Amino acid sequence: MTADAKMGWRLHQNQMIGWVKERKPYEKVVGLAEVMADVVAEFPESAWTGL
User: Fold this and answer.
1) Of 17, 20, 45, 48, whose CB is crowded by the most CB atoms within 10 A?
2) Cα 21 from chain centroid?
3) Are the beta carbons of 21 and 6 closer than 8 angstroms?
4) From CA 7, how far away is CA 5, in angstroms rounded?
5) Distance between CA atoms of 16 and 36, rounded to whole angstroms?
6) CB 18 within 8 A of CB 28
7) For 1-51, how does the pLDDT look when each residue is reduced to its tens digit (9 = 90+)?
8) How far apart are CA 20 and CA 51, in angstroms?
């Protein structure tokens, strides 16, 4: 992560926590969440065991 990042996310136990640097229209935030859900869906099931 850099100081210039416009958004970021991290995994904390069984939750994904994200942020955006500035106010965004609702549709933009929903779009970001949908993209991140797609990314998380690509992880193998074994990545989530032991959480």
Assistant:
1) 20
2) 14
3) yes
4) 6
5) 9
6) no
7) 556 777 777 888 878 787 777 776 777 778 878 888 898 889 888 887 765
8) 26
Residue matched to tokens 């100081």:
3
State the pLDDT at residue 3.
62
Q: Which residues pair with 44 in a beta bridge?
A: none
For tokens 């106010």, what's the residue? 23
**18: CB partners within 8 A, 6+ apart:** 7, 8, 9, 10, 32, 33, 36
Q: Which residue has the tokens 């949908």?
A: 34
Global pTM? Answer: 0.51
CB 24 within 8 A of CB 17: no
- Reading the block at residue 42, the tokens are 């690509």
